[in-house]
């Protein structure tokens, strides 16, 4: 986990807008050969040769997408970058640059923004992307963060959502459900803290799932792995909203149906034990939980030998004709239509 402590509280007015931008961005250097001009001019300049460029953006609003009571600012900065890099990876592209725009109220001292940018900086370093610009403005209430990410890939490598075919295999990376359960643990501890502020939560038994929630990683390794394996997915998407919702996106985009097998869904042991503790069905957690930032993709059956046994990849189902619809095949061999359900549908 990332440390998040700075006792000073310097008011933002002391720096002014340009002083603030300078202060926050001075430690950022650029390393991508494609970055010609980063922060400093009216616009950044990039040079990608004959590669195609992908671009994606996300807006995070305090009180809507994050709660500063349990999301430390450093983690938030890291996560704001990661969610965008995940979208770039879902195009089978390599992230190269980001911009970061913030709106802050005067409730935030300089030290808070330093924490935010420390997290942004860590993500830039970890993933080798350059911060090349942004915008800074005030807000009357709360904090808004918008990150835009650019990435590149050879034209023929880019994977869309709309080319999955019946009989293609459905594959997912990593394991699912951890981020949602991590949030449940953090929310429970927040309530405990309200009643007894001296109570120090013991999060050790939940370390993996809390980390999945607070410090998710983007699967930028997967496009590289797929290249090594000589597999080009027919369709791909990242799992931000929960497995069932993303499967339905792939089905709709590609005009196919799907059979998803409950017993194939990869779950970490901590997801299983914590689901039991919260009296949640772990399959429902994986289906509807969201924020796992794993990749979900389809491949031709011919490519199965190339991915077979790979520890990062699980085959969880196959695509069908569109008219057959999208279903979960349960352990008891019953077929249930997949629905994009909200979190509150998960109480078992
Ligand atoms: P402009 O007036 O053209 O919008 P700014 O004065 O807002 O330019 O920004 C100056 C430079 O600092 C630009 O390169 C801009 O992209 C960058 N920048 C502004 N705010 C941020 C931020 N929050 N994070 C990173 N870069 C920023
Ligand atoms: Mg500006």
Task: Summarize the model shown.
The chain is an alpha+beta fold. The chain contains ten helices and 13 strands. It has two domains: 12-157, 60s Ribosomal Protein L30, Chain: A (2-Layer Sandwich); 169-337, PurM-like C-terminal domain (Phosphoribosyl-aminoimidazole Synthetase, Chain A, domain 2).
CATH topology of the largest domain: Phosphoribosyl-aminoimidazole Synthetase, Chain A, domain 2
Q: How many structural domains are formed by the residues? A: 2
Number of helices: 10
| Distinct small molecules | adenosine-5'-diphosphate, magnesium ion
Number of beta-strand segments: 13
Q: Helicity range of the residues?
A: 25-40%
**Going by CATH, what is the homologous superfamily of the largest domain?**
PurM-like C-terminal domain
Report what the structure shows:
The protein is of the alpha+beta class and 348 residues long. The model is unreliable at 343-348 (pLDDT under 50). It has helices at 16-25, 73-89, 110-127, 178-195, 207-214, 221-229, 243-254, 269-277, 282-288, 304-307; strands at 35-37, 45-46, 52-61, 94-104, 130-138, 144-153, 169-173, 235-238, 256-261, 295-299, 313-321, 326-329, 335-337. Helix 2 packs parallel to helix 3 and helix 4 crosses helix 5. The chain has two domains: 12-157, 60s Ribosomal Protein L30, Chain: A, CATH 3.30.1330; 169-337, PurM-like C-terminal domain (Phosphoribosyl-aminoimidazole Synthetase, Chain A, domain 2, Alpha-Beta Complex), CATH 3.90.650.10. The chain has a seven-stranded mixed beta sheet with strand order 8-10-7-11-9-12-13, with helices on both faces. The protein has a four-stranded mixed beta sheet with strand order 3-6-4-5. Strands 1-2 form a two-stranded antiparallel sheet. It is built from ten helices and 13 strands.
């Amino acid at each position: 986990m990332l440390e998040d402590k700075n006792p000073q509280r310097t008011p933002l007015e002391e720096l002014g807008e340009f002083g603030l931008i300078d202060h926050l961005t001075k430690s950022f250097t650029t390393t991508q050969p494609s970055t010609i001009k980063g922060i400093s001019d009216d616009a950044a300049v990039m040079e990608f040769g004959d590669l195609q460029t992908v671009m994606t953006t996300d807006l995070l609003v305090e009180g809507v997408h994050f709660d500063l009571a349990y999301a430390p600012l450093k983690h938030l900065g890291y996560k704001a970058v990661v969610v965008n890099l995940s979208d770039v990876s879902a195009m089978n592209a390599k992230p190269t640059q980001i911009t970061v725009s913030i709106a802050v109220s005067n409730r935030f001292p300089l030290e808070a923004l330093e924490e935010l940018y420390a997290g942004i900086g860590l993500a830039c370093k970890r993933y080798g992307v350059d911060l090349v610009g942004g915008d800074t403005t005030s807000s009357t209430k709360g904090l808004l963060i918008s990150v835009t990410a650019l990435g590149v890939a050879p034209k023929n490598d880019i994977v869309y959502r709309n080319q999955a075919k019946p009989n293609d295999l459905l594959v997912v990376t990593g394991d699912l459900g951890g981020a949602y359960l991590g949030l449940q643990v953090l929310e429970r501890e927040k309530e405990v803290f309200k009643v007894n502020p001296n109570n120090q939560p013991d999060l050790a038994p939940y370390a993996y799932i809390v980390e999945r929630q607070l410090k998710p990683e983007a699967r930028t390794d997967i496009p590289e792995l797929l290249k090594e394996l000589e597999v080009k997915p027919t369709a791909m998407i990242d799992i931000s909203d929960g497995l069932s919702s993303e499967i339905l996106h792939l089905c709709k985009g590609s005009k196919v149906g799907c059979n998803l097998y409950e017993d194939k869904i990869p779950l970490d042991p901590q997801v299983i034990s914590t689901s039991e503790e919260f009296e949640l069905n772990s399959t429902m957690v994986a289906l509807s939980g969201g924020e796992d930032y794993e990749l979900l993709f389809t491949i031709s059956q011919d490519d199965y030998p190339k991915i077979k046994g790979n520890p990062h990849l699980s085959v969880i189902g196959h695509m069908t004709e569109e008219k057959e619809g999208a279903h979960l095949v349960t352990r008891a061999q019953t077929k249930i239509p997949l629905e994009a359900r909200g979190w509150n549908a998960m109480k078992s």
